[in-house]
């Protein structure tokens, strides 16, 4: 599908194109997200990019009141916290991302196992935009 290197940089490139891509080992079929240049399972170097559905379920989450600078610039702070979580993707792997649509004020209202769909949030970062991986409760 592509000859892009299996790096975080390539993964981020795909995010900017609004694609969630994993790397699948062509020997043992294990899927990696973010990608790895070498399969840690069978030490094979033959991997291939695979477009993922972006569907998953909420495995864990936490409300963040003081986030990294990029999130502060995006308007999140003590008064406007956001949720970060672990998403179990339909294809198998888990990934951490910002989760939208959760109740940040009353976390007990949120359901582990809630269905999620990927969304790509384009944020202005001065000169250019950066695409943030996020998931939204369905
Ligand atoms: Zn493998």
Query: What value does the Rg take, in angstroms?
Result: 16 Å
Fraction of helical residues = 10-25%
Structural class: mainly beta
Whole-number average pLDDT? 93
From the spread of the alpha carbons, the general shape counts as globular
The helix count comes to 2
Major β-sheet annotation: 5 strands, mixed, barrel
Q: So what's the oligomer here? A: single chain
Q: Which hetero ligands occur in this complex? A: zinc ion
Instruction: Give unreliable regions as ranges.
Output: none
> How many DSSP-defined strands?
8
List the helices and strands and how they pair.
Blueprint: H1 8-16, E1 21-25, E2 31-32, E3 47-51, E4 55-64, H2 69-73, E5 82-89, E6 94-100, E7 115-125, E8 128-137
Parallel strand pairs: 6-8
Antiparallel strand pairs: 1-2, 1-3, 4-5, 4-7, 5-6, 7-8
The structure holds zinc ion.
């Amino acid at each position: 599908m592509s000859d892009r290197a299996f790096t975080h940089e390539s993964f981020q490139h795909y995010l900017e194109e609004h694609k969630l891509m994993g790397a699948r080992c062509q020997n043992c079929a294990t899927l990696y997200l973010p990608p790895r240049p070498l399969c840690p399972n069978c030490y094979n170097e033959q991997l291939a990019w695979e477009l993922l559905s972006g569907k998953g379920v909420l495995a864990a989450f936490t409300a963040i009141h003081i986030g990294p600078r990029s999130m502060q610039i995006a308007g999140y702070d003590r008064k406007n916290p956001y949720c970060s979580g672990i998403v179990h993707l339909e294809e198998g792997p888990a990934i951490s991302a910002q989760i939208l649509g959760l109740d940040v004020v009353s976390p007990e209202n949120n359901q582990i196992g809630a269905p999620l769909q990927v969304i790509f949030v384009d944020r202005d970062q001065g000169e250019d935009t950066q695409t943030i991986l996020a998931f939204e409760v369905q």
